[in-house]
Amino acid sequence: MKIRSFVLVAIIGLASPACAQTPRPQGKAPAARVKNVIIMIADGAGFNHFAATDRYREGMPVETHRLSYPVALAVSTFPSGGSYDPDAAWRDPATLKKGATDSAAAATALSCGIKTRNGYLGVGPDGKPATHLMELAETLGKATGVVSTVPFSHATPAGFVVHDSERNDYSAIAEQMIQNSLTDVIIGCQHPEYDDNGKPREKPAFKYMDEPLWRSIQAGEAGSATDADHNGVQDDAWALVQDRAEFQRLAKGPAPKRLLGVPKVAATLQQRRRSVREKAVDEEPFETPLIQTVPTLSEMSLAALNVLDDDPDGFVLMIEGGAPDWASHNSESARMIEEMTDFNNAVDAVLLWVQEHSDWKETLLVVTADHETGFLTAKVEGMPNPSPAFAPVSRGKGKLPAMQWNSGKHTNSLVPFFARGAGSERFTQAATGRHPTGMPYLDNTSIPKVIRGLLIPGEGIAP
Ligand SMILES: [Zn+2]
Fold it and tell me: Distance, CA 41 to ligand 1 centroid (Å)?
C-alpha cells in the first residue's frame, strides 16, 4: 500500500511539468492513463432492444440509458468486405437485412480493431492472428477477464481471447482459453453435467469442451503451465467455482488469483429454461420462474471484478449478456426483455462497483452491442421492414411493449454505444459517421483503437 502511494506521487510529480506545457483542448485536463477498462456487450441488442426494455421497466418511453451516460453514440458493425450506408438504410430499411456481421467477426472488431470474416475469431480475413486488447493489457502487466451468460467458448468471449478461423470449434477454443491464454478470469455457461434447466444430467454432455479438459479443470490442474500473474513462474492453475453461493461470496473479500466460473447449467443461464407455456414466444417476462441455482450476470460480474482488482496494474474485463441474441433469433419477446433486464442490472452493479471500489478518473466503462438481431421495431400493421426509427411502444409498466420482429437473423443496423469515465470523450471524437437523423456513429473497429490509445498514451488514438 505504502509503495503504491509513493509510486503514484512520483508519477504525478513527473507528469505535472509536462502537462503544464501541453495545450489543453477546450480547457479540459489532459486524459490520464486509464487503469481499468470494462467493456459490456449486449449480444444482438439494437436500440429497440434497449428501448423495449426501458419501456417495460419504466412504463413510458424514456431513454434511460441515453440520459445516464456522458457519451451516447451509435456503432456500425459490418464484417470485412461489407459497409454501412446510412442514407440507403434510411431510404430502404430492408437493405439492413444484408451484410450483417456475426458475433465472431464483431468480437474480433471490438477486441482487435480489425474487420474480419464472419466466423473468424481474433484473426484477419487472411487467417493471420491479430492482437487482442486482452493481449495488449497482459503485456502491460494488467489482469484480464471475460464473463458471459452463454458458453465461455462461444463467439463473443472467445473473440476476445483466441485466434481461430472456426468459431464452432468449441472444444479447441475452450482448450486455447483454459490451457494457453493468460486470461485471469473466465466465467460462462457450458457445465457438462447440467441441463438447460439447471438439473443434473444422467450422462455428461461434452458439446462445448472435451471430457479430458473438464476432468483436468475439476482436478485443479488446468492452466497450471501458464504464468498468468506475470511472476516468472508457470504455475497458475484455475480455481473452479460452480455454485451460486460461491459466486455471491466472491463479490467481496479474498479472491483466488485465477477464477474459472462455470455455473451449474448447460448453454445459457436462463434463456433456454423450459417454459410454463407451450412455447416461450407466448410468455410474459418472468412468467416462467427463473432458475435459482445459477448466478445472475451481476453476481458473475462482481466476482470477476473482485478477482481482477487485486492486480495493482489494473485490468481489462469484457462482460457479455449473450442471450438477448438467442432470444431474438427465436422472436421470444419476453425472454429478450428478461435477458436485457439481467444485462441492465449488471451494468448498474458495475456502475456502483466503480463508485465504491475505483474512480471514474482511472476506470473506463463502455456499454455496447455486437450487432442487432431480429430487426425489432414498433408494431406496424401491414408494413414489412419498417424503419428502426419506429421504436417499440409502451403498454404500461411491467407489460410487454407493442413490437414486431421483422427477421430471425442479424441485421446491419447501427447499435447503441455508451461510455463513462476515464477518456470516454475520445469516442465522441472517433464518431465521424452521421446518420440522416444527425446521430453520430463510430465504427466498431475504432473502439479498441481508442482504448489502446488510452492504455498507452501516444498510440492508437487516431480511429
Ligand atoms: Zn446471433
Answer: 13
For the chain, how are helix, strand and coil distributed in percent, rounded to 5? 35, 15, 50
Residue 366 CA, ligand 1 centroid: distance in Å: 21
Distance 413 CA to ligand 1 centre (A): 14
d(CA 118, CA 100): 9
Strand-pair partners of 365: 38, 420
CB 424 within 8 A of CB 70: yes
* Alpha carbon of 3 to ligand 1 centroid (Å): 47
76 vs 95: CA distance, rounded Å? 14
Q: Which residues contact 295 (CB under 8 A, 6 or more apart)?
A: 244, 247, 248, 261, 263, 269, 303
DSSP three-state, residue 393: strand
* 6, amino acid identity: F
Going from the Cα of 331 to the center of ligand 1, the distance in angstroms, rounded, reads 12
403 in helix, strand or coil? strand
CA of 40 to the centre of ligand 1 (A): 17
Q: Say if residues 134 and 177 touch (Cβ distance below 8 Å).
A: no
Nearest Cα neighbor of 326 from 314, 340, 315, 313 is 340
d(CA 365, CA 357): 14
Q: Which residue has the cell 456499454?
A: 367
User: pLDDT of the chain along its 463 residues, tens only?
Assistant: 333 333 332 222 223 322 333 333 444 444 448 999 999 999 999 999 999 999 999 887 666 666 678 899 999 999 999 999 999 999 999 999 999 999 999 999 999 999 999 999 999 999 999 999 999 999 999 999 999 999 999 999 999 999 999 999 999 999 999 999 999 999 999 999 999 999 999 999 999 999 999 999 999 999 999 999 999 999 999 999 999 999 999 999 999 999 999 999 999 999 999 999 999 999 999 999 999 999 999 999 999 999 999 999 999 999 999 999 999 999 999 999 999 999 999 999 999 999 999 999 999 999 999 999 999 999 988 888 899 999 999 999 999 999 999 999 999 999 999 999 999 999 999 999 999 999 999 999 999 999 999 999 766 544 3
Cell numbers that stand for 195 in this block: 441441463
Cα 415 to ligand 1 centre (Å)? 14
Say how many Å lie between the CA of residue 285 and the centre of ligand 1.
Answer: 21
Instruction: Give pTM, 2 decimals.
Output: 0.92
Residue 155 CA to ligand 1 center (angstroms) comes to: 10
Q: Which residues pair with 185 in a beta bridge?
A: 145, 259
> In angstroms, what is the span from residue 287 Cα to ligand 1's centroid?
24
